[in-house]
Amino acid sequence: MVTNADVLRYLNSMDFPAEKQDIVREAERAGAPPEVLKALRAMPPVDYHNTNEVARSAATARAPEVTPADLAAKTRNRAHQRVARHLRGI
Question: Which residue ranges make up each domain of the chain?
Fold first, then answer.
């Protein structure tokens, strides 16, 4: 899947604010591969004010969701837990 860095690589010369169609056109002009163009075409049709907004709206790979089991395992792992100074036994 396409990442945010892949998408933004083809928008270096883009002037903002810009509409979705202008962003897709600029990526096509810059030689973006079909996967990047697909991610940009999946964005909502609004005006974008900067590359951060484009990165948040483009259909790119996202970090995996944290499951309750992952949180429980992290809680059980006492190696990296820290105790506030006022709670330590002195």
Answer: 4-64
3-state helix, strand, coil in the chain (%, to 5): 50, 5, 45
Q: Looking at residue 2, what is its pLDDT?
A: 85
Chunked mean pLDDT (size 10), the chain, 90 residues = 88 93 96 94 93 88 70 72 64
pLDDT at position 67, please? Answer: 78
Token pair 């002195």 in the structure block, residue:
90
Residue pair 4/60 in contact (Cβ under 8 Å)? The answer is yes
Number of H helices and E strands in the chain, helices first, is 5, 2
Gap between the Cα atoms of 37 and 59, Å rounded = 10
- Please say whether the beta carbons of 47 and 16 come within 8 A: no
